[in-house]
Amino acid sequence: MYYALKVWSDITPLNFHEVAGNNADIQIDFSRADHNDGYPFDGPGGTVAHAFFPGDHHTSGDTHFDDEESWTFRSSDVNGMDLFAVAVHEFGHAIGLTHISDMESIMRPYYQGPVGDPLKYNLPYDDKVRIWQLYGVRESVSPTAKPEVSGAEDHPFLPDLPENRSTIQ
């Protein structure tokens, strides 16, 4: 989740911080079937996740993933759902983006498969322009800069993928 949110915070003035409890602007849940938001999941395949647009409703920004999916991370397994790709897409909704038909966009309405290594992922230009229209451009951070880490906050370390393979077991 850290790296999926980082895709958006690297290019906008938005900052995301993990908080305990239920007072977060974006609640992230893995749920099954009816999970009390009016949009039940349907098991493997079909709807894999959904998010609510920002606003004043109690579910605004919340992002839910179907716990019955076969989630993968940093894998080229075409039989699973790439958690990073789906999370980037859903967090796009949580911060205000709608679907777009552009073939390159992460905001296409249907799952397109793995997008590659989260450490090297580059958000398509049309998605950048659309989010910049909502929030503006992050002024002080270059696209290759590392996020600042303060105090006891930790973020997951992802080693580089081996050059001779596209996945790590």
TrEMBL record:
Residues 143-169 are annotated as: Disordered. It comes from Aquarana catesbeiana (American bullfrog). Ca(2+) 3 binds at D42, G43, D66, E69. Ca(2+) 1 binds at D67, E69. Residues 1-137 form the Peptidase metallopeptidase domain. This is Peptidase metallopeptidase domain-containing protein. The active site is at E90. Ca(2+) 2 binds at D25, D62. Keywords: Calcium, Hydrolase, Metal-binding, Protease, Zinc. Zn(2+) 1 binds at H35, D37, H50, H64. SMART domains: ZnMc (SM00235). Its cofactor is Zn(2+); Ca(2+). GO terms for biological process: collagen catabolic process; extracellular matrix organization; proteolysis. Zn(2+) 2 binds at H89, H93, H99, M107. Belongs to the peptidase M10A family.
